[in-house]
Specification:
Elements: H1 3-10, E1 29-31, H2 49-62, E2 67-70, E3 96-97, E4 100-103, E5 109-111, E6 116-124, E7 131-140, E8 143-150, E9 165-166, E10 171-174, E11 187-193, E12 206-207, H3 212-218, H4 223-226
Parallel strand pairs: 1-2
Antiparallel strand pairs: 2-4, 3-12, 4-11, 5-10, 6-7, 6-9, 7-8, 8-11
Length: 228
Amino acid sequence: MSDIFKNFIEQISPEFIPVIDSRYTKEDYIKIDLSMTNVDLETIDVSSSRVFEGYLKGYIAKNKVKVAYGGYNEVRAIYSRSPHFNQQNPETERNIHLGLDIWCDSKTKILAPLDGKIHSFKNNNNFGDYGPTIILEHTFDNVVFYTLYGHLSLTSLSGIAVGDKVKAGQTIAVLGTSLVNGDYAPHLHFQIIKDMQDNIGDYPGVSSRKNLEMYLQNCPDPNLLLKI
Protein backbone atom coordinates (compact mmCIF):
# COMPACT_ATOMS: atom_id res chain seq x y z
CA MET A 1 0.00 0.00 0.00
CA SER A 2 1.28 3.45 -0.89
CA ASP A 3 0.33 6.81 0.53
CA ILE A 4 -2.74 6.69 -1.73
CA PHE A 5 -4.65 4.63 0.86
CA LYS A 6 -3.57 6.92 3.70
CA ASN A 7 -4.78 9.94 1.75
CA PHE A 8 -8.03 8.13 0.98
CA ILE A 9 -8.67 7.47 4.69
CA GLU A 10 -7.84 11.07 5.61
CA GLN A 11 -10.26 12.45 3.04
CA ILE A 12 -13.28 10.38 4.10
CA SER A 13 -14.36 13.15 6.47
CA PRO A 14 -12.99 16.59 7.35
CA GLU A 15 -14.63 16.42 10.79
CA PHE A 16 -14.05 14.61 14.09
CA ILE A 17 -15.69 11.16 14.04
CA PRO A 18 -16.56 9.64 17.43
CA VAL A 19 -15.78 5.97 17.95
CA ILE A 20 -16.84 5.95 21.61
CA ASP A 21 -19.94 7.36 23.32
CA SER A 22 -21.00 10.44 21.35
CA ARG A 23 -21.51 12.48 24.54
CA TYR A 24 -17.71 12.93 24.52
CA THR A 25 -16.69 15.83 22.30
CA LYS A 26 -13.30 16.38 20.73
CA GLU A 27 -12.47 18.77 23.58
CA ASP A 28 -12.91 15.93 26.11
CA TYR A 29 -9.83 14.07 24.77
CA ILE A 30 -6.17 14.48 25.63
CA LYS A 31 -3.18 12.74 24.08
CA ILE A 32 -1.10 10.50 26.32
CA ASP A 33 2.42 9.15 25.88
CA LEU A 34 2.76 5.50 26.94
CA SER A 35 6.05 4.89 25.19
CA MET A 36 9.32 3.69 26.70
CA THR A 37 10.49 7.31 26.82
CA ASN A 38 7.80 8.35 29.33
CA VAL A 39 9.77 8.48 32.58
CA ASP A 40 6.55 8.63 34.64
CA LEU A 41 5.93 4.99 33.76
CA GLU A 42 9.20 4.01 35.41
CA THR A 43 7.64 4.79 38.79
CA ILE A 44 4.59 2.53 38.47
CA ASP A 45 4.00 -1.18 37.96
CA VAL A 46 2.79 -1.21 34.35
CA SER A 47 2.27 -4.98 34.58
CA SER A 48 -0.64 -4.38 36.98
CA SER A 49 -3.89 -3.41 35.23
CA ARG A 50 -5.17 -1.93 38.50
CA VAL A 51 -2.12 0.29 39.02
CA PHE A 52 -2.06 1.30 35.36
CA GLU A 53 -5.75 2.22 35.47
CA GLY A 54 -5.04 4.41 38.49
CA TYR A 55 -2.26 6.19 36.59
CA LEU A 56 -4.57 6.81 33.61
CA LYS A 57 -7.43 8.09 35.75
CA GLY A 58 -5.02 10.44 37.52
CA TYR A 59 -3.68 11.76 34.21
CA ILE A 60 -7.19 12.36 32.88
CA ALA A 61 -8.33 14.08 36.10
CA LYS A 62 -5.20 16.26 36.30
CA ASN A 63 -5.83 17.55 32.81
CA LYS A 64 -9.55 18.09 33.47
CA VAL A 65 -10.69 15.98 30.52
CA LYS A 66 -12.56 12.69 30.24
CA VAL A 67 -10.67 10.52 27.75
CA ALA A 68 -7.02 9.84 26.92
CA TYR A 69 -5.88 8.61 23.52
CA GLY A 70 -2.78 7.82 21.49
CA GLY A 71 -0.26 5.12 20.79
CA TYR A 72 0.03 4.69 17.03
CA ASN A 73 3.56 3.54 16.08
CA GLU A 74 4.54 3.82 19.75
CA VAL A 75 7.25 1.59 21.24
CA ARG A 76 5.95 0.32 24.58
CA ALA A 77 7.41 -1.61 27.50
CA ILE A 78 4.05 -2.91 28.74
CA TYR A 79 4.04 -5.86 26.34
CA SER A 80 7.17 -7.37 27.87
CA ARG A 81 5.00 -8.84 30.67
CA SER A 82 3.32 -11.27 28.25
CA PRO A 83 4.86 -14.23 26.37
CA HIS A 84 2.26 -13.52 23.67
CA PHE A 85 4.47 -10.61 22.58
CA ASN A 86 7.87 -11.02 24.18
CA GLN A 87 10.27 -13.36 22.40
CA GLN A 88 13.49 -12.14 24.06
CA ASN A 89 14.88 -10.86 20.78
CA PRO A 90 15.04 -7.14 19.89
CA GLU A 91 14.22 -7.86 16.25
CA THR A 92 11.28 -10.21 16.79
CA GLU A 93 9.85 -8.92 20.08
CA ARG A 94 6.48 -7.32 19.34
CA ASN A 95 6.35 -3.99 21.18
CA ILE A 96 5.37 -1.35 18.58
CA HIS A 97 1.68 -0.45 18.68
CA LEU A 98 -0.28 -0.38 15.39
CA GLY A 99 -3.62 1.02 16.53
CA LEU A 100 -5.03 3.97 18.41
CA ASP A 101 -5.91 3.38 22.05
CA ILE A 102 -8.78 5.29 23.64
CA TRP A 103 -8.63 5.05 27.43
CA CYS A 104 -11.94 5.46 29.25
CA ASP A 105 -14.23 3.56 31.61
CA SER A 106 -15.44 0.01 31.11
CA LYS A 107 -18.99 -0.24 29.76
CA THR A 108 -18.37 2.81 27.54
CA LYS A 109 -20.33 2.49 24.30
CA ILE A 110 -18.33 1.75 21.14
CA LEU A 111 -19.64 3.31 17.94
CA ALA A 112 -19.19 2.41 14.29
CA PRO A 113 -17.42 5.39 12.70
CA LEU A 114 -18.76 4.53 9.23
CA ASP A 115 -21.41 2.37 7.59
CA GLY A 116 -20.31 -1.22 7.18
CA LYS A 117 -20.95 -4.81 8.15
CA ILE A 118 -19.53 -7.33 10.59
CA HIS A 119 -16.59 -9.10 8.97
CA SER A 120 -15.76 -11.35 11.95
CA PHE A 121 -15.54 -11.50 15.73
CA LYS A 122 -13.68 -13.58 18.31
CA ASN A 123 -12.60 -13.73 21.93
CA ASN A 124 -8.80 -13.50 21.68
CA ASN A 125 -8.22 -14.57 25.27
CA ASN A 126 -4.45 -14.91 25.52
CA PHE A 127 -2.89 -12.96 28.39
CA GLY A 128 -2.22 -9.45 27.06
CA ASP A 129 -4.30 -10.04 23.92
CA TYR A 130 -7.43 -8.16 22.72
CA GLY A 131 -9.99 -10.24 24.56
CA PRO A 132 -13.38 -9.88 22.81
CA THR A 133 -12.85 -8.36 19.37
CA ILE A 134 -15.08 -7.21 16.51
CA ILE A 135 -13.90 -6.41 12.98
CA LEU A 136 -16.04 -4.37 10.59
CA GLU A 137 -15.79 -4.29 6.81
CA HIS A 138 -16.39 -0.98 5.01
CA THR A 139 -16.80 -0.08 1.36
CA PHE A 140 -16.33 3.59 0.59
CA ASP A 141 -15.98 4.90 -2.96
CA ASN A 142 -15.57 1.27 -4.05
CA VAL A 143 -12.58 0.81 -1.72
CA VAL A 144 -12.86 -2.03 0.81
CA PHE A 145 -11.09 -1.77 4.17
CA TYR A 146 -11.57 -2.90 7.75
CA THR A 147 -11.70 -1.52 11.28
CA LEU A 148 -10.85 -3.54 14.39
CA TYR A 149 -12.25 -2.99 17.90
CA GLY A 150 -10.40 -4.76 20.71
CA HIS A 151 -10.80 -5.10 24.51
CA LEU A 152 -14.60 -5.30 24.46
CA SER A 153 -16.98 -6.96 26.89
CA LEU A 154 -17.95 -10.61 26.45
CA THR A 155 -21.58 -9.59 25.99
CA SER A 156 -20.52 -7.56 22.94
CA LEU A 157 -20.06 -10.82 21.05
CA SER A 158 -23.57 -12.05 21.84
CA GLY A 159 -26.45 -11.66 19.39
CA ILE A 160 -24.32 -10.63 16.43
CA ALA A 161 -23.55 -12.45 13.20
CA VAL A 162 -21.09 -12.15 10.34
CA GLY A 163 -22.64 -9.95 7.67
CA ASP A 164 -24.82 -7.90 10.03
CA LYS A 165 -25.12 -4.35 8.66
CA VAL A 166 -24.11 -1.41 10.87
CA LYS A 167 -24.68 2.30 10.39
CA ALA A 168 -22.30 5.13 11.23
CA GLY A 169 -22.84 6.15 14.84
CA GLN A 170 -24.49 2.87 15.80
CA THR A 171 -23.46 1.27 19.11
CA ILE A 172 -21.71 -1.99 18.21
CA ALA A 173 -20.20 -2.96 21.58
CA VAL A 174 -19.17 -1.80 25.05
CA LEU A 175 -15.74 -1.83 26.65
CA GLY A 176 -14.75 -4.72 28.89
CA THR A 177 -12.97 -4.81 32.22
CA SER A 178 -9.49 -6.14 32.91
CA LEU A 179 -11.06 -9.51 33.76
CA VAL A 180 -11.89 -10.16 30.09
CA ASN A 181 -9.92 -7.63 28.01
CA GLY A 182 -6.47 -9.24 28.19
CA ASP A 183 -5.77 -7.79 31.66
CA TYR A 184 -5.46 -4.13 30.71
CA ALA A 185 -6.93 -0.95 32.08
CA PRO A 186 -10.22 -0.45 30.18
CA HIS A 187 -9.68 0.99 26.72
CA LEU A 188 -10.56 0.57 23.07
CA HIS A 189 -7.93 -0.57 20.61
CA PHE A 190 -9.05 0.87 17.26
CA GLN A 191 -7.16 -0.09 14.11
CA ILE A 192 -7.61 0.44 10.38
CA ILE A 193 -6.60 -2.45 8.13
CA LYS A 194 -6.35 -2.45 4.35
CA ASP A 195 -5.74 -6.19 3.82
CA MET A 196 -6.90 -8.70 6.46
CA GLN A 197 -4.40 -11.25 5.10
CA ASP A 198 -6.87 -14.09 5.76
CA ASN A 199 -7.23 -13.27 9.46
CA ILE A 200 -10.63 -13.88 11.05
CA GLY A 201 -11.67 -12.13 14.26
CA ASP A 202 -8.11 -11.06 14.88
CA TYR A 203 -5.25 -9.09 13.34
CA PRO A 204 -1.88 -8.17 14.88
CA GLY A 205 -2.10 -4.92 16.82
CA VAL A 206 1.55 -4.88 17.86
CA SER A 207 4.56 -5.34 15.59
CA SER A 208 8.21 -6.23 15.85
CA ARG A 209 10.83 -3.95 14.34
CA LYS A 210 11.44 -6.61 11.70
CA ASN A 211 7.87 -6.43 10.32
CA LEU A 212 7.06 -2.83 11.13
CA GLU A 213 7.27 -1.33 7.64
CA MET A 214 4.79 -3.83 6.23
CA TYR A 215 2.32 -3.34 9.07
CA LEU A 216 2.49 0.46 8.97
CA GLN A 217 1.72 0.33 5.27
CA ASN A 218 -1.27 -1.97 5.84
CA CYS A 219 -2.50 -0.16 8.97
CA PRO A 220 -2.39 3.64 8.61
CA ASP A 221 -2.77 5.98 11.57
CA PRO A 222 -6.42 5.68 12.73
CA ASN A 223 -6.45 9.37 13.59
CA LEU A 224 -6.34 10.15 9.86
CA LEU A 225 -9.98 9.07 9.99
CA LEU A 226 -11.08 10.06 13.51
CA LYS A 227 -9.37 13.46 13.65
CA ILE A 228 -9.28 13.69 17.44
